[in-house]
Amino acid sequence: MRILLSAALLVAGIAIGGAVPGVSSRIHETLDAVGARNIPFLQAAPGMASAPARDEKPREDAEAHGSEPAPPEPNGAGEAHVPEGIVRMRPEQVAAQDIKVVKVEGGTLARHLLVPGTITPNTDRVARVPARVVGTVAELRKRLGDDVQKGETVAVLDSREVADAKSEYLTALVQAELQKINYERQQKLLASQAASEAAFQNARATFLENQLRVDLARQKLSALGLNAAEVAAAQKRDEATPNRSSLRLFELRSPLSGRIVERKVDVGTKVGGESDPADLYTVADLSSVWIELSVSTLDLANVRDGARVAVSLGQAGGDRHGEGKVVFVSPLLNQETRSARVIVALPNPDLAWRPGTFVTAEVEIARDAVTVRIPKAAVQTVEGKRVVFVRTEAGFEKREVELGHSDDEAFEVTAGLKAGEEIAAGNSFLLKAELGKAEAGDND
After folding, report:
1. How far is CA 125 from the centre of its chain?
2. Could you tell me the CA-to-CA distances from 21 to 9, 13, 53, 411 in Å, in that order?
3. What are 189-237's pLDDT values in tens digits?
4. DSSP per position, 219-261
5. What are phi and psi of 384, to 5 degrees?
6. 353 and 309 in contact (C-beta within 8 Å)?
């Protein structure tokens, strides 16, 4: 009786298992355990035929019914298998991680030579204001640091030498005017036969002699830096003001526009003599400065006139940068250092590059045109190989590349990449990290 009751319960369970496959498989296992699997009426029960015997293969059963079994799902998550070297990433993920994508193009690689240097004044734009005559400083119109224009008066001297030169010219000028009047008078008298030929020739000779004296006096003034017309005009002004004379005064003018960087005398100082100061001021135009470099013989062959030079002050100078060019490469070597002097001209419109400052110069020594040029930030090292990440529809693909020449910013690619493709150039290390995590997950 107990056996029949158990069998009835099993039949009911089998009927339920027909609707719920998980329950049916449990019942089958129970029947196998008690050895009741082969009872005829149980085999006829609903749901029994739906489960294969323990020793039957699922694939053979599937072939008998004319269908293939479903492939197993990878990683147990239902996702498709990601090929090796691929990083899947949607466009919004690329933007969120700030991965910069650039198109591969050709370009130029510029190689540089790093050399320390010192800023100096441009000697082509430095001038002194010489005394030119023996005298005493009567007036200084410019102070140290003042700006001056070319031809502007910067100082005034009191000079007897200048007074003598001016007097000689003015005297010759007056005599020449008188002799001209006498010559013209004798010429008229000779025409009317009121004067002899000898008197006329004597007047003519005297006139020409005085004219020569005027020319010589004018040249003397010019040698002192004086203008004869200005001297004559000043004399007429002095005649209108008898208590004031400019005869002994000598104005010194700036030979170029710039700034007073040195003053050597004071008011009342004697200048121009054998043991006296020879000049009063030093004027410098610092709108362009020089950078003096010392280049070794090993690198000298690569430095050429006109080469571009990037100049920087570094952290101490507030990261100031500029660009100049090589204007002189010395053909002579320093016997002690075995190096050559190289001069770089650097524009200085805001006067921020001060002479005496130490700088770093990057001298361009070569420019190479390349077919494929990529930023250095785009290159990563994976398993000891240089790779880049090429943009694809699904994300990025790891691509091994061969590199050629390089400069401070970019590499030449000789194999593995072609112009027109797009690569990750900024934050590409994030892709390397993602690739590493994906490969670690596959190994697990």
Report:
1. 25
2. 18, 11, 15, 63
3. 878 777 788 888 888 888 888 889 889 989 988 888 888 888 888 887 8
4. HHHHHTT--HHHHHHHHHHHHH-TT---TTEEEEE-SSSEEEE
5. 75, 5
6. no
Region of 78 on the Ramachandran plot (φ > 0 left; ψ -120 to 50 alpha; else beta): left
Q: pLDDT tens digits for 430-439?
A: 888 877 776 6
Using an 8 Å Cβ cutoff, are 400 and 437 in contact? no
What percentage of the chain exceeds 90 in pLDDT? 25
Confidence band for 186, pLDDT divided at 50, 70 and 90? confident
For 147-164, letters b (16+ CB in 10 Å) and e give ebeeeeebbbbebebbbe
State how far the Cα of 101 lies from the Cα of 392, in Å rounded to an integer. Answer: 11
DSSP of 254-300 = -SSSEEEEEE---TT-EESSTTS-SEEEEEE-TTEEEEEEEEEHHHH
How far, in Å, CA of 235 to CA of 226, rounded? 13
Residue 181, C-beta contacts closer than 8 angstroms, at least 6 positions apart: none
- Residue 63 has φ and ψ, to the nearest 5°, of -65, -35
Residue 419 identity = A
Q: Do the Cβ atoms of 159 and 223 come closer than 8 Å? A: no
The DSSP letter of residue 151 is: T
**Per mean pLDDT, which range of 13-22, 238-247, 343-352, 376-385 is the poorest?**
13-22
User: Is the confidence at residue 400, as pLDDT, over 60?
Assistant: yes
Cα separation, 13 vs 220, in Å, equals 138
Residue 174 and residue 236 in contact, taking contact as beta carbons nearer than 8 Å: no
Say if CB 340 and CB 330 are below 8 A apart.
Answer: yes
pLDDT at 99 over 80: yes
Q: Give the three-class secondary structure for 30.
A: helix
Q: Which of 128, 157, 162, 126 is nearest to 140 (CA)?
A: 157
- Cβ partners under 8 Å of residue 66, min gap 6: none
Pairing of strands 279-284, 126-130: antiparallel
Q: Which residues contact 25 (CB under 8 A, 6 or more apart)?
A: 17, 51
**Nearest of 132, 133, 134, 129 to residue 155 by alpha carbon:** 129
